[in-house]
Design brief:
The protein is α+β, with helices and mostly antiparallel strands. 25% of the residues lie in helices and 19% in strands.
Length: 447
């Protein structure tokens, strides 16, 4: 198995931190000299992917937009070698992504709307007081620079039982990366015979072979790309009160009642139990068993009678479902590192006006093949699943006119699906390897 150089990979890529709190800083650089000086002063504090003897109290990671790489002085020939989607950024591709109406860039938070972001620095920490301490330290460093300015901040924090605001346990299905030294969990990679294997590192890290046996397309020179990856950041507002009303209303005439309908929408019961393995009731012993809760395929359920074809997790990772019998479905996998933001809405409460939702973060070697494909083809369209124009109920760009089909005899139709999640902003970032960060800073031979 090929070895990957953990010391040169930024942390939180091949293995999640699982810290309870985080803050994202969005930074604008006024000039390249100050930007490189700040990066030289900061790079020693950036967390890499080496295994810990003891978990630290905090971690720092740094990523750049395409405009940020230009602002810090990366050469034009290198800038031009990045893929078009990264060069354009999320705002320019919003229409394609379904970020329209209330989700359009005109309604985004100002730092995303105005294109002011050059750098995203993320601090994760073991406790709120530790996060506050490290954020104070980080802001003091920035205050000592000449032209760097924080244009936005975003806090995030895990909710009880690792749930998201709609009440589902989140983050259960993650692809494992070959060569990272971690044990393979059943269901986390590629099904081969009676077992599973990790995905090749090049699906997520530049400079490594991918599932085709090739090196993924990467910016030049090689030293800039090696062990880097692309990061997609999206702030997604969840309308929890609307979701609760929608679910209760549609479940009134549904034979399985509200919780079973909630499970059908997601493909898991709210405790994480996959309905493909337990279609009639949640099974806590299964939902929390990391060796079993992803150990399933859809090959024996092509009609969707156990797990609906349009369920969220089945769309997000179709495995061997109908229309995906070829071997390359796993080329669209994503590493997800998101976290909720905002306080939970109390049970039984109506909308309290508090902004809450999910900070969606995903990583991959190709923004277009991985994130954009999943969002446009699997979330916002049903054609590839033989579902016509049906969209994903939870993550699709619904407008109140669409439906979801819960297969059965007879089928059940969840009608008039509203938009439950609204995009508040986002962008595409490049997360360089540690040595590449040093080159960008001018400490090593620059790219």
């Amino acid at each position: 198995m090929p070895h990957i150089d953990r010391a040169d990979i930024q942390g939180n890529v091949v293995r999640g931190y699982r810290f309870p709190v985080a803050r994202h800083f969005f930074i604008r650089m006024g000039d390249a000299t100050s930007g490189r000086r700040w990066l030289r002063d900061t790079v020693d504090f950036v967390t890499n992917a080496e295994l810990w003897d003891e978990k630290p109290g905090w971690a720092l990671n740094i990523a750049f937009t395409h405009a940020g790489l230009r602002a810090v002085g990366v050469q034009p020939q290198s800038l031009d070698s990045f893929p078009a989607e990264f060069q354009q950024g999320m705002r320019a591709r919003a229409q394609m992504l379904g970020d329209t109406g209330g989700s359009s860039p005109a309604h985004w938070e100002s730092h995303f709307r105005d294109g002011d972001i050059h750098v995203m620095a993320t601090l994760n920490a073991s406790a709120p007081d530790r996060l506050a301490e490290r954020c104070d330290w980080f802001e003091r460093i920035l205050a000592g620079t000449e032209t760097l300015q924080i244009v936005g901040r975003q806090d995030a924090a895990r909710l009880a039982e690792s749930r998201e605001h709609f009440g589902y346990v989140d983050g259960l299905s993650q692809p494992l990366v070959a060569g990272d030294g971690m044990p393979t969990r059943r269901g986390q990679g590629v099904k081969e015979g009676s077992g599973w294997r990790a995905l090749r590192a090049g699906e997520f890290l530049l400079g490594h072979h991918d599932e085709t046996g090739q090196m993924p397309l990467a910016p030049q020179p090689t030293a800039l790309a090696q062990n880097g990856t692309y990061l997609v950041y999206r702030k997604l507002h969840q309308d929890v009160a609307l979701f609760r009303r929608f679910l209760a209303d549609r479940a009134r005439a549904y034979a399985g009642a509200e919780e079973k309908l909630a499970a059908a929408l997601m493909g898991r019961w709210r405790d994480g139990t996959p309905i493909e393995r337990s279609p009639d009731a949640a099974d806590p012993s299964l939902g929390f068993d990391l060796q079993r809760n992803n150990d399933f395929t859809y090959g024996e359920d092509l009609d969707g009678f156990r797990c609906p074809v349009g369920a969220h997790i089945r769309r997000a990772n179709p495995r061997d479902a109908i229309g995906f019998r070829h071997k390359m479905v796993h080329r669209h996998r994503l590493i997800r590192r998101g976290m909720p933001y905002g306080n939970p809405l109390s049970p039984g409460s109506d909308d309290d006006g508090v902004d809450r939702g999910l900070i969606f973060v995903c990583l991959g070697a190709s923004i277009q093949r991985q994130f954009e494909f999943v969002q446009t083809q699997w979330m916002n369209d049903g054609n590839i699943f033989a579902l016509g124009a049906d969209k994903d109920v939870l993550a699709g760009d619904n407008d109140g006119t669409g439906k979801m089909t819960v297969q059965g005899r007879p089928p059940w139709f969840v009608a008039a699906v509203p938009r439950l999640v609204t995009t508040k902003g986002g962008d595409y970032f490049f997360l360089p390897g540690i040595r590449a960060l040093r080159r960008i800073s001018g400490e090593l031979q620059p790219p």
